[in-house]
Amino acid sequence: MIDALFTELLKARRSRVPWVTALAFAVAAGVGGLFMFILQDQGRARSLGLLGTKASLMGRDADWPTYLAFLAQTTAVGGMLVFGLVSVWLFGREFSQNTVKDLLALPTARTTIVLAKFVVAGLWCLALTVQLVLLGLVIGSALRLPGWSADLVASGVATVAATAAMTMLLTTPIAFAASAGRGYLPGVGVMMAAIFFAQVIAALGYGRYFPWSVPALVSGLVGPDSDPPGLLGLLLVLFVGVVGVVAAALWWRNADQDR
Predict the structure, then answer these.
(1) CB within 10 Å: which end of the chain, N or C, has fewer?
(2) pTM score, two decimals?
């Protein structure tokens, strides 16, 4: 297992994909800071060309609760896209780059290889979440947002962490799709379908019954009037995460690699 982990970490270190994902989350934190800067003084934003003369951002305040909620909502939607990209790359690259036979020829169990990939994916997504939170705290402090309190920040960070953890679990079927589809495109297709249906079903009010909508409900993206996911929604997320890992491991162990 240690050798498999080292191999996967080495692949990630020598790739540009980690830098792309880190840049994506850095941009997300920066966009949130830009919105807070605009909300602080919309007249100033218009004079700087950041807001159209007829545009207006009403109903939000430039404070810590709003900014932390934005980070959580970014994790729910953008996290599914970025974390999904991590899973697609880790599992799909072996087939797209024709390295799967070389990998399976090693004296390492196939399930060990799969578990190593999932561990690296989890560590990768955890690092991105920590980066988002730290950048958010730095940007919010630089903007001197009001409403700071230790309890509020702890609660906001906990919401971001919970949203990220659920989003990580929901990307395991994407890893299975990239494996069974033998490449990037099947994984990307499943990822985009999950994002699309998550938004639609959450808007219809049935998000707590659809696992991919649960992170959006937890983050407050659907709105304050939406029903909380409850225990059922959380169990569905956990179930999907476990099924995705088991399905990927079984496929790698039993599938014939004939090309």
Answers:
(1) C
(2) 0.87
Q: Measured at the alpha carbon of residue 191, what is the angle toward residues 189 and 195, in degrees to the nearest 5?
A: 120
Q: Where are the domains of the chain?
A: 2-254
Q: Which amino acid makes up residue 7?
A: T
- Residue 19, exposed/middle/buried by CB under 10 A (0-12, 13-18, 19+)? exposed
| Secondary structure of residue 51 in the 3-state scheme | coil
Tell me the average pLDDT across 47-65: 61
Q: What would the two tokens of residue 224 be?
A: 């304050």
How many helical (H) and strand (E) elements, i.e. helices and strands, does the chain have?
11, 0
Query: ∠ CA 94-185-2 to the nearest 5 degrees?
Result: 30
pLDDT at 39: 78
Is the pLDDT score of 55 beyond 50? no
| Residue 255 φ/ψ region, left for φ over 0, alpha for ψ in the -120 to 50 degree band, beta for the rest | beta
pLDDT tens figures, 105-145: 778 888 899 999 999 999 999 999 999 999 999 998 998 88
CB 238 within 8 A of CB 167: no
Which amino acid belongs to residue 140? G
- Establish how many alpha carbons lie within 13 A of residue 130's alpha carbon, considering only the half-sphere containing its beta carbon: 6
213: which residues sit within 8 A by CB, 6+ positions away?
198, 199, 201, 202, 206, 207, 222
What is the token pair recorded at 171?
Answer: 């990307």
Percent of the chain with pLDDT over 90: 39
